């Protein structure tokens, strides 16, 4: 239970807000599909799942940029 209450960042709050907004729209307009979408967004916010196992974060480490770039020779075909 404590893991659900920790690590709330901007994306979790955004998913929660979208889920609540879609839930309100689904109830007020009696739309089942919108309700399913709201449930998915709320599930993502509560369980902190989203873009994969590592989340939506971009890795901070860069790949090795010391690689030598070779010139490519092209031959014209007529």
Description:
The protein is mostly helical. It has a domain of 38 residues. Helix content is 46%, strand content 0%. It is built from two helices and no strands. Helix 1 packs antiparallel against helix 2. The radius of gyration is 22 Å and the shape is elongated.
- Mean residue pLDDT: 82
Oligomer: single chain
Low-pLDDT parts are none
- Compute the number of strand runs: 0
Q: Could you give the distance between the termini?
A: 70 Å
The sequence of SSEs as H and E is HH
Shape: elongated
Percentage of residues in strands: under 5%
Question: What keyword list fits this structure?
Answer:
78 residues, mainly alpha, 2 helices
Question: Strands, helices and their partners?
Answer:
Elements: H1 10-29, H2 32-47
Summary, kept brief:
With 78 residues, this protein is mostly helical. It has helices spanning 10-29, 32-47.
């Amino acid at each position: 239970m404590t893991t659900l209450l920790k690590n709330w960042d901007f994306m979790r709050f955004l998913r929660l807000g979208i889920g609540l907004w879609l839930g309100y729209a689904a109830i007020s307009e009696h739309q089942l599909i919108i309700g399913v979408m709201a449930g998915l967004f709320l599930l993502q916010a509560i369980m902190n799942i989203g873009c994969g196992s590592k989340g939506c974060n971009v890795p901070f480490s860069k790949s090795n940029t010391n690689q030598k770039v070779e010139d490519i020779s092209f031959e014209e075909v007529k």
